[in-house]
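Problem 12. The chain below contains 527 residues. Write out its predicted structure in token notation.
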Amino acid sequence: MLTGASVADGLGNPLEIRDVAVADGLVVPLEQADDTWPRVDLSGLVLAPGFVDIHTHSDLTLLSSPLAHSAVRQGVTTQVVGNCGLGMSPQTEVTSHDDLRGVNSYLDHDPTVDTHWQRLADELRAWREARPSINVATLAAHIPLHAATAGLADQPADAGQVEAMVGLAHQAIDDGAVGLSTGLVYSPLCFALEDELLALGRVAADRGVVFAWHIRDYIDDLLPSLEQALRVARLTGCRLQISHLQVVGRRNWSSFDAAIAMIDEARAAGLDVAFDMYPYLAGNSMLTQVLPSWVQSGGDVGVRRALVRADSRARVRAELLSEPGMAFGWDEVLIASAPDPSVVGRTVDWIATDRGREPVDAALDLIAEHGTEVLMTAFGRSAEVLRGTLAHPACIVASDGQAIDPDGPTGHQQPHPRSYGCFPHFLAASFLDDLGLSLPEAIRRCTSAPSDRVGLVDRGRIAAGFPADLVAFDPLLIADRASYTDPQVFPAGIERVWVSGQETVRGGEHLGTRAGAVLTRPATDRP
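Solution.
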């Protein structure tokens, strides 16, 4: 019996001081309880549904570090993985396992994790056997679908390959995927034609699942990239989720109003469109994303080969230096992870000065040596645009981070602070005041709104019959304590967390509980 808390139901209704009864992993009607039930006094705290993070990249970190410290200790009880088209299933003989793992290096913190999965069902089995502390659901990722049928080269999929891709997408949904995802800046998807995207959009529409898009460009070509996603939604009828909507580079900040107007117009016309964003002014990705797309043919191996050859390296260098130039400065690119620890936590500009190189050459040196293993935290964002994004009614809060154990194999180098503090950052009173959002509405954007978006309609609410995934936090103290230079710090104000009714965090400390489940859609026949 949880007593004394101000309860947020997850639907945006006003907070209400009332008791909540929990039994057998579920919230149950109060009349089932009696005086013999243990009571937990939560006076002064807000009791909310556990946060549902629908955009994460914990595909492999949950296998390496299943206690999911950085997620559950900020109140997250469910993560959705398989985002941005990144993933390791299905696998066929068309692309080698090592090459597929190379293009997915953003996910890969622990080389001891076995990722030889023929189909998504094998990956789901691995998560069940790992017994994570949080629930996990997955999207069917576009990169392995494309790699399994058309490979990694700079060539579009032909009609037969697209048909095979569609079959694998259906199989992944039958296995339990809650949606599809694409990431059109990553190899080999930067070479995918719109016919391939339309085919996957029709799968999503036919099966009633979400289609999440890391669009082709968030920089100079933001608007045509957004229009492509909206066009696919219009032509197929799929439910569209724009991933981490952002505008990168000062010269592009003025395009935000036009981007939002496009989304508003589509929603007004009846398209099912929403977007997600994290509450930070920097993103995190592979350093290879600064390169022209043609360099990425062949994935990680292709990138390294291109930068070793003098002619292709000279071409890359010339393109990076040509007008209008980079949308952000090399002093705004922080190396977050690399096999060479001496560069971690340094800007490319600093590394260049230290090595007596031009910044562009220092960046290309790093990529030539380490390829997709070099991760960056990149700035070039507008605080005003971020406020406009997060305040918009179609925005859902999602971390774009990973479940990390600071003392385990995943806890090395310098990750983005969002992995530790996304939801406390967003729910801090001063931050919500700046956005003009009430606490109940902000909680809705972290709970029922994301759950509904991916079809997990039994999560994100406090109501009888629903799983007891719960977080109790102090609304006056909740705060993100992680930073870009010191990111592996747990937040303040998260007092207790329950997953499936089992207490997992108390006083901000992990109890070692591993009550998470793999959440799937019921298997259905194909239409």
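Discussion. The longest strand covers residues 76-81. Students who got a different answer should revisit the alignment rule from Section 12.3.
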